[in-house]
Amino acid sequence: MKFARSDRADRLTLVSMAEDTPDDDAMAPLKDWTRNFLMRDNAQLGRSGNVCPFTSFGARVDTLRFGVSQARPGEDKRVRGQLLDALDRFEEIPHSDQTGIYRAILIHFPRCDSFEGVATLQRAQRSLRLAGFMRARMLGVFYPTANEPGLWNPAFRPLRAPIPIIALRSLVAADAAFVLRHPLLAPAYLFNYPFAGPKELAKVAARRS
């Protein structure tokens, strides 16, 4: 099943880590943040390894794509259309059976660098969260004041970024902790992980008890 694509004239240019684009002034900080935050260790993370090991490996196997959207605050329909299109194009990222889970698309929204701009991104993300889960995709909003606590260290703020970003990545069984925070997503999670899912949910619940 494919989602309805956005207006062709408004489609985002998606590039790899090594490619340049006409939007490089906005693309450069997105790639820099990916390299310097997601792909690095962080003492506050609460576990060893990179903040996002999937991103680090994805960079090595060329399954990461980056885009820049010129959507403005209040343009919910435009943002949603671009995300729907990105969900479709996610499937087109070349990968092997082993590297498919390392696909990700990161989109910078430079014109949404305000309270209302972030709220616009959050509304679009929430409207697609369940649909994304059904297709084994996660959508997350990153911005400077994000307060979502870390899974391993509640004092860590993994969704904080210096620029407003929406990231799309593969859903994995280890996302059980996120599912427990949002139980309405549990049926979609278990649809994708009918065997590993219950075990992961039980492990996270036991760790918290």
Could you describe the 3D structure shown?
The structure is a single chain. By secondary structure, the protein is of the alpha+beta class. The chain has two domains: 8-171, no CATH class; 174-209, no CATH class. Helices cover 41% and strands 11% of the residues. It contains seven helices and four strands, in the order ααβαβαββααα. The chain has helices at 24-38, 53-61, 76-90, 115-134, 176-181, 186-192, 196-208; strands at 64-68, 104-108, 137-142, 165-170. The model has no long low-confidence stretch (mean pLDDT 91).
Count of DSSP strands: 4
- Estimate the global geometry from the Cα principal axes: globular
- Average predicted local confidence, pLDDT: 91
H/E order of the elements?
HHEHEHEEHHH
Q: What percentage of the residues does DSSP assign to strands (E)?
A: 5-15%
Structural class: alpha+beta
Query: Biggest sheet, open or closed, and with what strands and sense?
Result: 4 strands, mixed
Poorly predicted ranges (pLDDT <50, ≥5 residues)?
none
How many helices does DSSP assign? Answer: 7
Residue share in helix: 40-55%
Distance between the termini: 39 Å
* Count of distinct structural domains: 2
Radius of gyration: 17 Å
Main sheet: which strands, in order across? Answer: 1-2-4-3
Summarize the topology:
Blueprint: H1 24-38, H2 53-61, E1 64-68, H3 76-90, E2 104-108, H4 115-134, E3 137-142, E4 165-170, H5 176-181, H6 186-192, H7 196-208
Parallel strand pairs: 1-2
Antiparallel strand pairs: 2-4, 3-4
